[in-house]
Design goal:
Layout (H helix, E strand, L loop, with lengths): L2 E6 L7 E2 L6 E2 L3 H7 L9 E6 L11 H13 L6 E5 L5 H11 E2 L5 E4 L12 H13 L12 E5 L2 E4 L4 E2 L8 E2 L7 E3 L3 E3 L14 E2 L7 E5 L6 H8 L6 E6 L9 H12 L3 E6 L12 H8 L3 E2 L5 H12 L5 H8 L11
Length: about 350
């Protein structure tokens, strides 16, 4: 019999209103089953585990990603799929991190949540939860999981986790995958785009990873940025990587002092990666003269990566004690479908 494990980390979807006090309380599976009686109609086993102390996703840290990976690893042989309930604020960061940490995974990990608590009359949580469970349990004609990836499901769209960004703080369409099409759309039927879905290498095992290094920082360029600000970032103790958020197709102001700072970072062994501030599109190093200076300074191409996936990828690679040369090589590869390389 198919079996699905729900992992509750915290977040709005699992908040249940106390009828006596009116206060929102954390996830309780029995109350959850009462509020979502449709769960009984699934003809397979649904179990649940929860963080000992559920957290708001604003408090999510790399150590919490490790906890989720450990829960999946420990239950990997017992369940056919996993649904992670998570707050929306940092959901894309978690989805990106898990995609790297769960190497060659052969089972679905569907992350979802809601903008309104599950007990509210107009909640979006029920649809998100029920469809996520259905996707996690879905099999193709050969009996293989339909989507053996780390994904986010939100408001009828199934998206590769490391391609997503939260784009709406109020609407139910909270997430978008701007640079990669949805893996499935849920309407009357769930229609899968099988040609877009990654599959594990059958010759290699599933390998969970637990090592991360958070000596990474974002540096966003803006008109009028001061030299001392960039210098202050470059001098952060223990800094190993900078994600440089540039304009348009990867352009930066032509300031000699900026080029000098970037070259100094390179000489100190700090990896600098160029991603665009635009929500859609990609970095094209060398397309304009304003990005040629970045190439000369040793800045890497971030292609069409989201900020969330770039942060997670760097933390993952830095955490595994790789040489700088090997990290640079892997930054120019698509490890989990996180970037598009021509």
């Amino acid at each position: 019999m198919t079996s699905i494990l729900i992992i509750y980390t915290g977040g709005t979807i699992g908040m249940i209103e106390n009828p006596e006090t009116g206060a929102l309380e954390n996830f309780d599976m029995e109350q959850f089953r009462h509020l979502v009686p449709e769960l009984k109609r699934f003809n397979f086993t649904i179990d649940a585990v929860t963080f000992e102390s559920p957290i708001d996703s604003s408090d999510m840290e790399p150590n919490d990603w490790v906890r989720i990976v450990r829960m999946i690893h420990e239950n990997y042989e017992r369940y056919d799929g996993f649904v992670v309930l998570h707050g929306t604020d940092t959901m894309s960061y978690t989805a990106s991190a898990l995609s790297f940490m769960l190497e060659n995974i052969g089972k679905p990990v569907i992350i979802t949540g809601s903008q309104l608590p599950i007990g509210k009359l107009r909640t979006d949580g029920k649809e998100n939860l029920l469809t996520s469970i259905e996707i996690a349990a879905a099999r193709n004609a050969q009996g293989e999981p339909m989507v053996p990836e780390v994904c986010i499901f939100f408001q009828s769209a199934l998206m590769r986790g490391n391609r997503t960004t939260k784009i709406n703080a109020e609407g139910f369409n909270a997430f978008r995958s701007n640079n990669y099409p949805p893996l499935a759309k849920a309407g009357i039927h769930i229609r899968y785009e099988t040609h877009l879905i990654r599959r594990p290498d059958p010759t290699r095992p599933f390998t969970p990873h637990y090592l991360l290094d958070n000596n990474v920082v974002f540096l966003t360029l803006f008109p009028g940025i001061r030299e001392d600000i960039v210098d202050m970032v470059a001098r952060i103790k223990g800094l190993k990587a900078v994600i440089l958020k540039t304009y348009g197709a990867g352009n930066a102001p032509q300031r000699p002092w900026l080029v000098d700072k970037l070259k100094q970072m390179k000489e100190r062994g700090i990896i600098v990666v160029n991603i665009t501030q635009c929500s859609k599109g990609r970095v094209e190093m060398g397309r304009y003269e304003t990005s040629l200076q970045l190439i000369d300074s040793g800045v890497l191409n971030g292609y069409d990566a989201t900020p969330e996936s770039m942060l997670a990828k760097l933390m993952f690679l830095l955490g595994h004690d790789l040489s700088k040369e090997e990290i640079i090589m892997r930054m120019n590869e698509s490890l989990r479908g996180e970037i598009t390389i021509d």
